[in-house]
Fold:
Amino acid sequence: MEIVVLLAGVVDPKWRLERLALRAGGEQPDETGLPYRLSPFDEAALETALKLRDADPAIRVTAVIPGDAARDPLLRAVMALRPHRVFRFDTAGAPLWDPHAATRLLAAAVDAAAAAGLVLMGREFGDGDDGVLPPLLATARGWTFCGQAHALALADGAIVAHRMRGPREEAIALATPALVSVTNDRSNRLRHPLMKNVVLTRREPIEIVTMPADAGPIALHARSLAVVPPPQRGAGACRMLEGPLDTQIAEMATYLRDWRDGASR
Amino acid sequence: MMETDILVVGGGAAGFAAALEAAERGAEVLMLEKLSETGGSSAMSGGCLAFAGTDMQREQGIADDAALLARDLKQLGGGAADDALIAVYADHQLETYDWLKAHGQVFAPGLEASSGQSVPRVHTVDPADLVRLLAARCRATGKVTLLTNTAARRLRRDATTGRVTGLLAEGPDGALDITARRGVILASGGFSRNPELLAQFAPACEHAVFVGGEGNAGDGLRMAWALGADLRDMAQIKGTFGKHPTDELNNHSCLCVYKGAIAVNQDGRRFVDESLSYKLLGEACLRQPYGTGFQILDAPIMASGDNEVRILDFERRLEEGLFIEADTLEDLARQIEVPEATLLKTVADYNRFVDAGEDPEFGRRHMVHNHGALRRIETPPFYAYPSTAAVYGTYCGLRVDPQMHVIDVFGERIDGLLAAGEVVGGFHGNAYMTGSALGKALIFGRIAARTAVAA
Ligand SMILES: Cc1cc2nc3c(=O)[nH]c(=O)nc-3n(C[C@H](O)[C@H](O)[C@H](O)COP(=O)(O)OP(=O)(O)OC[C@H]3O[C@@H](n4cnc5c(N)ncnc54)[C@H](O)[C@@H]3O)c2cc1C
Structure:
């Protein structure tokens, strides 16, 4: 079976977004020079695919990262984990925050890989998605959809997705082709690459697939883009204890006592 | 123009130990820290301290003393280490342990044997707490002034006597000219964050990972060097074995080998006597293909770790997904992409050596240094910890005499200039004992302070 993992990448959260702007003359965000990482959801999707491959040597895994050249370091990091194939689906800078355009784009990205029996992606796809892209893509293509799985297993050749629904764990046998969005969990934390493979992939060429011209127009156009500063500390329920140390300790002790008494009632 | 009795450059363990000792002896101290936060490598360290003959060791039935400690240090130094500095460490370590305890320092209950130790003598503290404690005690004396965001730039010398009388620094409000009546103590740490100096002195570590305080760029070293200071052990910079090569969250090495694991390279072969100092293991590792290897262990070795000691916290790292786990050695070999047959043979050979009591390949006889009987690797699950070498400290630098005066290339004292901590060379020599760098920072820091106060 062919598994395609779609990986979005997010701007490295350790990076301070001081500068955020639209491209000169364009309606697209200028993301030049921003470092990307896989999001925890991307990582969970990738690890889930690698685990299936480990369980069944007949499974082939292709990882696809849509985006421009800024994603290439990310591509190498994924290559070091040795899926069968990794390529960048060059989106010519088209952003993914317009869901309909993004759906067309991601469908084209999946088509660029071999006919997939299973498509995996994080439960949220990149910085601009709040979880609509996976179901939208599945619906657009008529694939079986399962959202927020934390594990996939093979049972007699069929794929069974596991997910939590409240206190219950559901096990759902999926008809293929299927698209599963994956949530992060202790059990699907992404493995580390072997140093050997990190070194070897440094020298390997990167495969780039160009977006077909008919991928479709973009409906939503950005007019402006701004950095919203994080809320001031103390604006909410959080506040620093003040005054002499003894006063602070007494206040903290009272707080903890009340909390304990409240919890045991 | 500012003036003080003693000027301390650097707010790590050495700087704070020096400042506190000097203040307790009545001196007025000005301390410069180039970053906005103090702590340096000290605060991010493993918090392992090498002390011998402590009450903790006695309570746990461990026979150790200053003489055995000195013997281990000499053996590790391999002739390169300065016997006089080893003697200073050995003679003053116990009093520094007691001094820390008297100041309220708490040690983790367990004692461990690690790199270069014939008996368990790793005394573990929370390293950031250690620095905070010393800083708080310094504040409480009312005699120590700390200037953060203030970097020492150049030492100032008296034109006629040659004595170091102070230095030029740069703070948030511009240049500062500071006079130190009784001396300047350089406690500015090593240079693991200075790529040019590393390329110059440690070309063999090109592929190593570098970890250390952000401000550790060798400023103090270069300032003293500019006055003609002699340098020691510059050729001894080595990476420490056991750093996971692709994990960015754990700064510390993991030394399963010291609990009985073996180290193999990407070909599945052992390459070293794993009981040696982890600096020597690091050196050997960097010569292997891809500059990395794996520590191979089984379930009992995994269970023998100690989650309170950062270099032996195996189970914590297992939880973090850093170990590769398998029910058979064959499967482990597949996962780490090492030839199966070779790994199986390596482990089988090693187990035979353990039974026979002799390792004809590399001569390993103990778990670590002269401590601990070897154990077979046989009970599943099996584990591999990917490991390369990381340079945590440069452990080389200024030549000092036993009073911590900096000595110039002609063997003469540079008057008014003292040094302590990682900026000092000549103490470790060829290899390295766990806990001796943080130990040296505290012990030598206090001695430098005493010398300056007496000046
Ligand atoms: C991850 C890690 C783990 C380690 N674990 C251990 C361990 O368990 N046991 C052990 O014995 N050793 C350990 N070491 C080594 C040990 O921590 C250091 O050798 C020791 O702490 C050095 O202390 P120091 O005070 O000399 O330097 P540091 O603690 O590095 O302090 C030097 C300070 O000087 C400041 N500074 C530098 N230049 C200037 C300037 N121009 N002006 C003003 N300030 C300046 C720096 O910013 C820094 O704050 C470890 C090191 C690392 C990195």
The radius of gyration of chain A is 22 Å. Chain A has one domain: 2-210.
